Amino acid sequence: MGNMAKKIKRSKSATANTNSPVVGQKSPLIQQTTSLYLTLSPTAYDDTKDGAEPRVHSMPVKGLCAEHIAPHLLSYYSPLNGILLNFSNPRISETSEDIFRTETAPVLSHSIDEYAVSYVWLTCDFLIFRPSKGVKLDGVVSLQSESVLGLLCYNYFNAAIEREKLPEDWNWNGEKWLDGAGKEVSSAITFIVEDFEASGQDGISIMGTMREG
């Protein structure tokens, strides 16, 4: 029972994934088509409502998205290795080999022994924020201290640049950072991503540098 419970909670990515940057080759915004092997609750089986004609796959797709995908919006989702920003074009299939078929034929889910839920493949087109090492980002200054400069990227993601990663000619005046020309650092700046840490529902924390090499 314990092993099966763990299997039910886990999702599995298909090998047929596609990735493409939304803007340029070094963009942190990625469009990715991914298939996940997910549990389908019995309440999502029925496509018929109030005697109307059934809509093919409507309820199963809505049920899967509501249970497994929508709760992860704007948070780090490990199967996608990034922050889930949006998803579209959800569709289901019986096997991973059928994920790109456009036919609307009935799909049979996989039931295991006496367990109430069954399994089916859900494929979606995802928009993901994935800041890989070396990518340049723009951030608005949101926090200043002697040891770190805090930034806000895309008006949502937090980034931090430690003192030793700031330009060598910058100076701390006791309240704010001053650039090489002696001007206060208070607007948007460009930095290079060094790493990031995922923290589930709290999103990610980005570590950056303003020094080349």
UniProtKB/TrEMBL annotation:
Q: Which domain of life is it from?
A: Eukaryota
- InterPro entries the record matches: RNA_pol_Rpb7-like_N_sf, RPA43_OB, Rpb7-like
Where does this polypeptide localize?
Nucleus, Nucleolus
Please list where the region (Disordered) is annotated.
1-25
Query: Cellular component per GO?
Result: RNA polymerase I complex
Any single GO BP term: transcription initiation at RNA polymerase I promoter
- Show which residues constitute the signal peptide: none
> What region holds the RPA43 OB domain?
131-174
Predominant cellular place of this UniProt entry's protein: nucleus
Record key words, sorted: DNA-directed RNA polymerase, Nucleus, Phosphoprotein, Transcription
Where is the sequence biased in composition, kind Polar residues?
13-25
- Show the ranges annotated as biased composition (Basic residues): 1-12
Alphabetized Pfam families for the sequence:
RPA43_OB
Nucleus recorded as keyword? yes
Role summary: DNA-dependent RNA polymerase which catalyzes the transcription of DNA into RNA using the four ribonucleoside triphosphates as substrates.
Q: Which family does it belong to?
A: Belongs to the eukaryotic RPA43 RNA polymerase subunit family.
Q: What is this protein's name?
A: DNA-directed RNA polymerase subunit
Instruction: Cite the source lineage.
Output: Eukaryota, Fungi, Dikarya, Ascomycota, Pezizomycotina
